[in-house]
């Protein structure tokens, strides 16, 4: 049986999420909702198995691709604290330095 982790979001994650949602809704009604659903599913999967995705940098960040969208959930795992820190919901084509927030 797996133990849930506490999910801690960087303050700018909500902005990342909202901007992407609104952009997708402008493209096609309902597409933003599908984006939100896929982000939530990915975060739930990360919560169940936080080490499923390998580290991508010296800073121990991990990246999980959001199904059907060019976005990543960028996060760090703190196993002893049972904490997952989500640094960004990051578009794959944007400046990669902005996805590693502290």
Question: Which key phrases capture this entry?
Answer:
102 residues, alpha+beta, YaeB-like fold, 4-stranded mixed β-sheet, 2 helices, 4 strands, 25% strand
What does this protein structure show overall?
It is globular and about 40 Å long. The protein has about 100 residues and is an alpha+beta fold. Strands 1-4-3-2 form a four-stranded mixed sheet. The chain is built from two helices and four strands, in the order βααβββ. Helix content is about 30%, strand content about 25%.
Describe the secondary structure blueprint for this structure.
Elements lengths: L5 E4 L3 H15 L3 H18 L13 E4 L5 E8 L4 E9 L11
Parallel strand pairs: 1-4
Antiparallel strand pairs: 2-3, 3-4
Helix pairs in contact: 1-2
Query: What's the helix-strand series?
Result: EHHEEE
Broad structural category: alpha+beta
- What percent strand? 15-25%
Number of helices: 2
Question: Which outline best applies?
Answer: globular
- Write down the overall mean pLDDT: 89
Topology, number of strands: 4
Quaternary status: single chain
End-to-end separation in angstroms reads: 30 Å
Low-pLDDT runs of 5+ residues are none
CATH domain class? Alpha Beta
Short summary:
The protein has helices at 13-27, 31-48; strands spanning 6-9, 62-65, 71-78, 83-91. The protein is an alpha+beta fold. The longest helix is centred in the middle third of the chain and has 18 residues, at 31-48.
């Amino acid at each position: 049986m797996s133990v849930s982790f506490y999910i801690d979001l960087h303050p700018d994650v909500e902005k990342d999420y909202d901007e992407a949602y609104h952009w997708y809704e402008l493209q096609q009604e309902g597409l933003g909702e599908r984006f939100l659903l896929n982000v939530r599913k990915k975060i739930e999967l990360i919560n169940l198995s936080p080490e499923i995705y390998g580290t991508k940098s010296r800073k121990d960040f991990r990246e999980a691709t959001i199904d059907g969208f060019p976005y990543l959930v960028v996060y760090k795992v703190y196993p002893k604290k049972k904490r997952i820190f989500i640094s960004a919901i990051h578009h794959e084509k944007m400046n990669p330095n902005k996805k590693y927030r502290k």
